[in-house]
Amino acid sequence: MDRDFLIDLFADFGPVTIRRMFSGFGISADGTNFALALRAGLYFRADDQTIPQFEAEGSQPFQYQTRSKTVTVNSYWQLPARLFDDSEELANWARTALAAAQRAALRKRPRVRKSAKVAAKRPAPKGKPAKRKAKA
């Protein structure tokens, strides 16, 4: 899949940002990544609410092989092939995937900046109180 094909594919969904990622592209809307286009196919973000929809279509989660094992990524599921010919329904699935990605982003804890972590762990300084200058 190339960039132009993906832009056409998501035309009914709305504007998307397509960025190079791994062996393909990451697809996002409103700053949220909701799809991956890889050599093996197109994968949409999924969660507990949407996985049954993918299972009903006979889709599988994204998998890749390492030297020692097969890794399954349950947060991305392969888009059913029939949707490539139905741009309206593909747009609905894309909206559902974007919603799943947004729910996942809300569940993540906000990251604490390193300087804030260090300051929080640092004990208060001990020692003599500062001397005050006498007023003349």
What does this structure look like?
The chain is α+β, with helices and mostly antiparallel strands. 31% of the residues lie in helices and 27% in strands. It is built from 4 helices and 6 strands. The chain has helices spanning 3-9, 51-56, 87-107, 114-121; strands spanning 17-21, 24-29, 32-38, 41-45, 61-65, 70-78. Strands 1-2-3-4-6-5 form a 6-stranded antiparallel β-sheet. The longest helix has 21 residues, at 87-107. The protein starts with a helix and ends in a 15-residue tail after the last helix.
Average pLDDT works out at: 86
Taken as a percent bin, the fraction of beta residues is: 25-35%
Give, in spatial order, the strands making up the sheet with the most strands. 1-2-3-4-6-5
Unreliable spans: none
Task: Profile the largest sheet.
Answer: 6 strands, antiparallel
Spatial gap, N to C terminus: 81 Å
Q: How many extended strands?
A: 6
Provide a count of the helices. 4
The H/E string reads HEEEEHEEHH
User: Looking at the structure, what is the overall shape?
Assistant: elongated
The secondary structure category is alpha+beta
Supply Rg.
Answer: 24 Å
Percent of residues in helices: 25-40%
List the helices and strands and how they pair.
Layout: H1 3-9, E1 17-21, E2 24-29, E3 32-38, E4 41-45, H2 51-56, E5 61-65, E6 70-78, H3 87-107, H4 114-121
Antiparallel strand pairs: 1-2, 2-3, 3-4, 4-6, 5-6
Offer a concise description of the structure.
This protein has 136 residues and is α+β, with helices and mostly antiparallel strands.
Relevant terms:
136 residues; 6 strands; 31% helix; elongated; alpha+beta
